[in-house]
Design a protein that fits this description.
By secondary structure, the chain is α/β, with parallel strands linked by helices. 44% of the residues lie in helices and 14% in strands. The protein contains twelve helices and eight strands. The protein has an eight-stranded parallel beta sheet. α5 packs across α7. The longest helix has 16 residues.
Length: 251
């Protein structure tokens, strides 16, 4: 049985004061969360604070991006070893905002996946389609291509060492959310696509839903057979909402 995972993506939000309050609230409310794993992915500049506050707790943490390079003249980049030094377990790879605003290609995302694993990090691989792609009926083509790029570069075995987050781009920050049935259909397709290469990897791989999961819709989404948790955006900045999702995943 796959362990549920609820991972918060804070994006470019927070201050040292606000994250201290946020993490205290989450830590204090974790008593009922005994099955699901909970993690937060912080802006890199706050990772020292996050490590100090969460060290010894049941909550894991991670970064929001990683460089393909181990070191060198790459101003503004963060190497996987640097994230690992601050106790990160996870790192988000290929988020739609990185693909859209920074032009990250499927190939670059695959290289980042490899770099993360080389540093001992668990990549959370984000995949998903835009509204135009969904309306054009090519959701499976897009998602399949994004998965295949990683498998071709890393191998199916290494893919199984990460996590996949399906994030329909049209449902992020728009107030729109895929119905539980729509989300399940794509999650089932993802698992079947991976099963074509390895049934064992497909059976064990955590596939999260990343399309504006919140306290109100989490239970219905998480009740679907192939949805193993959530990559949470805005709701992860509110302790009560984030804990409500974690509690739903714990059920």
């Amino acid at each position: 049985m796959r362990q549920p995972l609820v991972a918060g993506n804070w994006k470019m939000n927070g201050t040292r004061a606000s994250i201290k309050e946020l993490l205290e609230g989450v830590k204090n409310g974790m008593g009922e969360v005994t099955i699901a794993e909970v993690a937060v992915c912080s802006p890199h500049i706050f990772l020292c604070d996050v490590q100090q506050q969460l060290d010894g707790s049941a909550i894991a943490w991670g970064g929001q991006d990683v460089s393909v390079h181990e070191s060198g003249a790459y101003t503004g980049e963060t190497a996987g070893a640097m994230l690992a030094e601050f106790g990160c377990k996870y790192v988000i790879i290929g988020h739609s905002e990185r693909r859209t605003y920074h032009g990250e290609t499927d190939q670059l995302v695959a290289e980042k996946f490899t770099a993360a694993r080389k540093a001992g990090l668990v990549p959370i691989l984000c995949i998903g389609e835009t509204l135009e792609e969904r309306e054009s009926g090519i959701t499976e083509e897009v998602v399949g291509r994004q998965i295949d790029a990683v498998v071709e570069h890393c191998g199916i075995g290494m893919l199984g060492e990460g996590v996949i987050a399906y994030e329909p781009v049209w449902a992020i920050g728009t107030g729109k959310t895929a119905t539980p049935e729509q989300a399940q259909d794509v999650h089932a397709f993802i698992r079947a696509r991976i099963a074509a290469s390895s049934q064992a990897v497909a059976d064990g791989l955590q596939i999260l839903y990343g399309g504006s999961m919140n306290a109100g819709n989490a239970a219905d989404l998480l009740a679907q057979a192939d949805i193993d948790g959530g990559l949470i955006g805005g709701a992860s900045l509110k302790p009560a909402d984030f804990l409500a999702i974690a509690t739903a995943a714990n059920a």
